[in-house]
């Protein structure tokens, strides 16, 4: 089976995606699959073989080598951010009839949009922070926001990952800088109240037909919150498994499953919560979690005593079961 291991992307997360892609290339069972390294970048799409770039034909996601057309049977998607985590590539692969790992194009688009995700989850009584949604050009009243959310609060791009563009505002003197920082990533932003509690990240997958929690990791950031520096530059301590009481652990597990199933998820995911007053409050869900050596998801797989090779087999099996929408 020819598997396109797709990595890169159009955002600042592309560097992380390249690391994730290398893990997939190394872990796929070579007795079952023939992996190809495929880069999706703003200026070019190509398959990389022995340091030679072979352009991808966007008409059917194939390429030519030695005057022979090579087509893929399946895509293993490791793009973080746009266009591989927000539904764009998934919709394209649907149209050309290629199975792909991870959740569907709709779930990808939904979960990449923080406002829309919170709106859906509100119907399922998922605890979360209070929030205000703003678009570029809207009138912004800092005093009114402070009165509604209190200080400190967070300013986030509505559609972004790896904590890019996220700031914690402790005084209104920092507010304009935080707004500009978030708007540099997206035209829409989310301002959320501060949840004072313990931060945990929970790996959840669909495994052999059941929703399975891989593990719970507590995050202890050296910075004021779990930002890009803390995530990827060693400025945090990640403890797997988190040291929680059995009661709190069970609450986190059940809440993580509820979020996963309420959003109609399949595939790998990592959901972040703040445990405040013994209640897990939803922060966000990552539907294409990092798989680099610095990432949390591989730590949780190791804790669950699950080989990445087996998890990838499961992902591929799920992908093959999901028919493109036009074939249903």
Walkthrough of the structure:
With 328 residues, this protein is α+β, with helices and mostly antiparallel strands. The chain has helices spanning 14-27, 88-96, 105-112, 114-122, 142-149, 175-183, 228-232, 246-262, 296-303, 308-321; strands at residues 2-8, 34-40, 45-49, 52-55, 63-65, 68-70, 74-77, 131-135, 153-157, 167-169, 188-193, 198-207, 210-221, 236-239, 269-276, 279-286. Strands 4-3-2-1-7 form a five-stranded mixed β-sheet. A hairpin with a 2-residue loop joins strand 15 and strand 16. Helix 2 packs antiparallel against helix 3 (105-112).
Could you give the topology of this structure?
Blueprint: E1 2-8, H1 14-27, E2 34-40, E3 45-49, E4 52-55, E5 63-65, E6 68-70, E7 74-77, H2 88-96, H3 105-112, H4 114-122, E8 131-135, H5 142-149, E9 153-157, E10 167-169, H6 175-183, E11 188-193, E12 198-207, E13 210-221, H7 228-232, E14 236-239, H8 246-262, E15 269-276, E16 279-286, H9 296-303, H10 308-321
Parallel strand pairs: 1-2, 1-7
Antiparallel strand pairs: 2-3, 3-4, 5-6, 8-11, 9-10, 9-11, 12-13, 12-15, 13-14, 15-16
Helix pairs in contact: 2-3
């Amino acid at each position: 089976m020819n598997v396109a291991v797709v990595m890169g992307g159009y955002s600042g997360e592309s560097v992380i995606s390249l690391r994730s892609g290398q893990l997939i290339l190394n872990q796929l069972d070579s007795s079952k699959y023939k992996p190809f390294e495929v880069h999706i970048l703003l200026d070019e799409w190509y398959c990389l073989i022995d340091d030679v770039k072979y352009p991808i034909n966007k008409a059917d996601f194939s390429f030519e080598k030695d005057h022979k057309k090579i087509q893929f049977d399946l895509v293993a998607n490791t793009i973080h951010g746009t266009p591989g985590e927000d539904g764009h590539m998934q919709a394209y692969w649907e149209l050309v009839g290629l199975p792909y790992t991870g959740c569907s194009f709709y779930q990808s688009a939904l979960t990449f949009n923080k406002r829309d995700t919170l709106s859906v989850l509100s119907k399922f009584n998922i605890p979360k922070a209070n929030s205000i949604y703003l678009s570029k050009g809207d009138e912004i009243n800092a005093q009114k926001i402070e009165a509604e959310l209190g200080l400190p609060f967070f300013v986030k791009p509505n559609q972004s990952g790896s904590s890019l563009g996220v700031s914690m505002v402790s005084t209104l003197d920092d507010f304009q800088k935080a707004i500009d920082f978030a708007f540099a990533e997206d035209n829409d932003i989310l301002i959320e109240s501060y949840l004072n509690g313990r931060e945990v990240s929970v790996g959840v997958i669909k495994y052999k037909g059941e929703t399975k929690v891989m593990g719970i990791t507590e995050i202890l950031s050296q910075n004021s919150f779990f930002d890009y520096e803390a995530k990827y530059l060693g400025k945090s301590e990640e403890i797997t498994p988190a040291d929680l009481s059995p009661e709190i652990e069970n609450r986190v597990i059940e809440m993580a499953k509820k979020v996963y199933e309420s959003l109609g998820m399949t595939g790998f995911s990592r959901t972040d919560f703040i445990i405040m007053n013994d209640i897990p409050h939803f922060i966000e869900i990552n539907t294409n979690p990092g798989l680099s050596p610095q990432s949390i998801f591989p730590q949780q797989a190791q804790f669950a005593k699950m080989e990445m090779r087996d998890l990838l087999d499961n992902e591929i099996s799920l992908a093959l079961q999901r028919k493109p929408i036009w074939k249903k």
